[in-house]
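Supplementary Note 3. Input sequence used for the single-chain structure prediction.
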Amino acid sequence: MDHFTYRDSCLYCEDVPADAIAAAAGTPCYVYSQLTLQDHYRRLAQAFAPLDPLICYSIKSCSNIAVCRVLAECGAGMDLVSAGELHRARLAGVDPARCVYAGAGKTDAEIRQALDACVGWLNVESEAEFENISSIAESMGRTCRGALRVNPDVDPRTHRHTTTGTKETKFGVDLERARAFFDTYGNDVHCTLRGIHVHLGSPIYSPDPYVQSIGKVLRLIDDLEAAGYRIEMLDIGGGFGADYETAQTPPASEYAERIVPLLQDRVRAGLQVILEPGRTITANAGVLLIRVLYVKRSGDKTFAICDGGMNTLLRPSHYDAFHFIWPCRVDAAHVPARRLKEMDLEGLVPVDVVGPICETGDFLARDWPLPPVQRGDVLAVFSAGAYGMVMASRYNSMPLPAEIMVDRDRCTVVRRREDYDDLTAHELTPEPLGTALQ
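The predicted structure, written as discrete structure tokens, is reproduced below.
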């Protein structure tokens, strides 16, 4: 469910016409619905309420400070993978103690910043990283809480670039190595190893992989506690799907229906549960608005060449991902009742929706059936709130787009559109590297 709907043949974001936003803010631009962000968070929180989880929003899915602030006001902590995301979380008013910090390549500087901020949990990805965290904590006279990230070797059946819980990935340690990891580091006094973290990947459209992985991890916890190690926290990660097509993913309640019974007795016994949702909150809370520059016909192909492409939304080119695309204004016969990969409406024309970038791979959709479009039309690329703006680039020296937050009938620019001065600001003041090279 989201708050992007057609009224009288015009797409609205909450109570504002989308093409009016495009006219005022320019295109390309990202538009977020505050009501959708709040609604998705609350549905998730209600579904998992029996576990009283700490819900740490995955900043990497959509890192705009205004988005983080909306979710923080709903009660979210934050899932971090860099010191930059820690900085954003603090600007959004989030207590670092309500944050978890993952990532296989934390630098020494980032570890120090996390320790200085007193981040709630550091998710540890390797033996070498644990030793480094412990050493840095000792040198700073600090202690921290560590959670070992384990790979349960469960295939989530998602894209190979977003699968993270199998043995072949760079993340975490094999389940078989976890016991030896605790035997080596479980009594460290500088980084107290008291948690287990697992993240399978994303998007996952079934509760089954979670049931499998949680079962494996609970057996590990039992083995560790039988050996004398105390486990206080289980972070089951995120990865729940989003509706790139209407009703594509189960509701949060369906995931919870299978997961809650596995963990409820553990929670009653004192185990803290953490969730790390990202796209399931933000994907359908955002659209990308682009404007058609030219309609071109070449042989049997029709191209809608737009002012935003792979530079604004990389997912189609990078993951072969599907995003529903539709004009913001259509005639009554072309108002979509559902957003599907195959649209069965009269008068649609197969179109390649492409951008301005000098790459053949610059596309948002190929042979996508659209109502007839012409120069100046505004198209909405749906389900673009997750991994949209965060993966946008300045390739071809294209300034980054604006981001707009809509709250009922009020629109706020939460990131201004870049200009050419922004593009070159870091290049106009060259300075010597220093004397260390001499």
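The CA atoms of residues 175 and 220 lie 8 Å apart. The longest strand covers residues 286-298.
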